């Protein structure tokens, strides 16, 4: 009796976000827990490994022409700093950020600056009308004969515009609004984003066009769409900033053409967006007279040293009733957990009375300080506020505070002190063995938090 042929297995299903596969469809991925990302994929076809058509013959690596891949500055200095000098022809850049942070304004300025350098630029918007973008362009003085504008949401129409204009730089705002008729799904879905990205990346590589894609972010701050999108592009940039602050930061998360430890600083104002080569002034307050509860520190954003001011306010000392049973600890711009730890060390190891007293700490200008090097400045600001004694206006503090009350060394002390001296500060409290020397700056090394407080609050 002949054996029955084995039953052909059903086509598997795969998650477009993480690649997890399953034998049956599921509304939620069992690996990454994403909703609506599991799709059916076809079984591999027989003889799929046969030879195919090649685009160009292989050549010795030394014979490859690199002139066409030279970096071209965008004209925006702070963005060029992050990109590694500018945009590379054929490169695909993904710029992601929260709504209203200024992505469209920045890229319209990039398009205008590139057009001024005789670089044919095509700006495709899927979120606004052409008239709305024109109004913004007039405000930014971004009208140029080499800057083309189109409002499209269909991928086929986008390709037609590219064929017609033949741009050297293509800006797509945003990739979540573009959809392909060849693929099912709504614009912004995993399938659509993957298809649109693949087509635009292929066009960029084949025609040597620099492409900048605007991406949305989810509520947890990650880039919306399939995770593989970040792997496919050459550069991933994050555009950050508080809605109520003028400061904007561009960080490189991935960069095939440069470093990922550079940060670009921008000022978003009524006239548009401008680069800040020296943004320190946004994070400092100039007081006409000494004020208790303020201390200046130096933080590192990538390779850049930025001065920032920490302010503290401490409530009245408890009376006979022992103070508030549940005193408030409020932070703004600082890590809440680390600030609470520093306050506990300040009270138990340095003898600063904080029990039963409300403590409020904040940064100036919307700066976010999360590195441990700002611990010492935070402790000195709180100690100054608690004792109603102002710190010297020409003093900065750098150091990490440990649970035992010790002041630990941090990275980049020499670079931080050079920046402080450049801006006119005369005294610096740093951890012991920092091995830093700066002309015109008195460096005070301390090993304990109590010692740092005594040095900072002692009469000069």
State the name of the first-level CATH class of the largest domain: Alpha Beta
Q: Which parts are unreliable, with pLDDT below 50 for 5 consecutive residues or more?
A: 1-9
Indicate the radius of gyration in whole angstroms.
28 Å
Named CATH topology of the largest domain: Rossmann fold
Q: Classify the helix fraction into a percent range.
A: 10-25%
Structural description of this entry:
By secondary structure, this protein is α/β, with parallel strands linked by helices. The protein has three domains: 32 residues; 210 residues, P-loop containing nucleotide triphosphate hydrolases (Rossmann fold); 176 residues, Ribosomal Protein S5, domain 2 (2-Layer Sandwich). It contains ten helices and 21 strands. Strands 6-5-7-8-4-9-10-11-12 form a nine-stranded mixed beta sheet, sandwiched between helices. Strands 13-14-16-15 form a four-stranded mixed beta sheet. The chain has a three-stranded antiparallel beta sheet with strand order 2-1-3, with no helix packed on it. Helix 7 crosses helix 8 and helix 8 crosses helix 10. The longest helix is centred in the middle third of the chain and has 18 residues. The chain is elongated.
